[in-house]
Structures are given as structure tokens and as C-alpha cells.
Design a protein that fits this description.
The protein is an alpha+beta fold. It has four helices and eight strands. The chain has an eight-stranded antiparallel β-sheet with strand order 1-2-3-4-8-7-6-5, with helices on one face. Helix 2 crosses helix 3. About 20% of the residues are buried.
Length: about 170
């Protein structure tokens, strides 16, 4: 006999990899930001989407390794956006590798395969901030997270920290 959580696929927990792959599926199926609705987000992500208001809805959950992710649409000061973000659970020691599949390079390659063009955004002292990908009707910003040692040296692949659709 199965439990309700395992028999209902909309209540199943996603892995970081599934979250990123399904978010890529949402981008693939969407022409513009305005096309993303609670229904299309539910269909792409395969989870129950909670609505706070007509312009604010999403989903979030904990991940193994003391991480969490959320996918959310909201209308902020910079206008409407949809984001996928990963963050350590507060007060817990999070393993950097636990939320890094697919890594930044694979995520970027998937966007390029959808016809996006890639650009880098740099800040002060030419520090890399994020890459943005554009195609008619959509801009996707992909922010990196690089696991670092106690001395600040990179210790692994560049991970996806946050993705914004504008």
C-alpha cells in the first residue's frame, strides 16, 4: 500500500536536479514571462503551486544536504519575474555539492540549445556577477554559486544559485 505522499505525484518531493530540469522545461514551453501562470508552472514543475495573489505564486521545499529551493512568480519593484533559487537552510551546515546538478555550464548549454544568446554581466573590478540569456520575448539571468574553501579558493564546479526570468 502506498502513502498519499508517494501515490500523488503532485505531492512528491523534487531533487535539485529535477527542480532545475523542470524549470528548464518551463522556459522551453514559454514564449514570454506573461505566459507563465500557476497552471503552466504546475504542469512544468509537477508540484502544487500555492497562490498568494494573482501576481504572486510558487512552491518551495527542503532538499537533502540542508538546502532548500523555491520557484516563485511575483511582481517586484523591477517588474514581474519568475525565479528559481537555492539557499542553505538557516542554522544548518549545508553541503555545497548537494544542490549543484546540473551545474552552471550544463544549465547554460541547455538555454543556448533553446535559441538564447549568452552575455556576461560584470560589476566592480570586472567581477563576474551573472550571465544573462536572451531571445525575443524573454530574458533569463543565471547567477553562479561557487563552492569555496575556508581560504576563498574555488573547490568545485560552478553551481546555479538563482535563475530569474524577466
Amino acid at each position: 500500500m502506498t502513502t498519499p505522499a508517494t501515490s500523488d505525484p503532485t505531492r512528491a518531493q523534487l531533487s535539485a536536479q529535477q527542480a532545475m530540469e523542470r524549470f528548464l522545461g518551463l522556459i522551453r514551453a514559454t514564449r514570454t514571462l506573461q505566459d507563465i501562470t500557476p497552471e503552466s508552472m504546475h504542469e512544468a514543475m509537477g508540484v502544487d503551486i500555492r497562490s498568494v495573489s494573482p501576481d504572486h505564486y510558487g512552491y518551495g521545499q527542503a532538499l537533502p544536504g540542508n538546502w532548500a529551493f523555491s520557484v516563485e512568480r511575483h511582481a517586484g519593484g523591477a517588474g514581474p519575474q519568475v525565479n528559481l533559487s537555492f539557499s542553505p537552510i538557516p542554522g544548518k551546515n549545508a553541503s555545497p555539492e548537494a544542490a549543484c546538478e546540473p551545474d552552471f555550464a550544463h544549465f547554460a548549454d541547455a538555454l543556448l540549445g533553446m535559441g538564447f544568446t549568452r552575455h556576461a554581466s560584470h560589476g566592480e573590478h570586472n567581477r563576474w556577477l551573472f550571465d544573462y540569456f536572451e531571445r525575443p520575448g524573454m530574458r533569463v539571468e543565471v547567477y553562479p554559486r561557487t563552492p569555496r574553501s575556508d581560504r576563498g579558493a574555488p573547490t568545485g564546479p560552478i553551481c546555479v544559485d538563482k535563475v530569474l526570468i524577466r
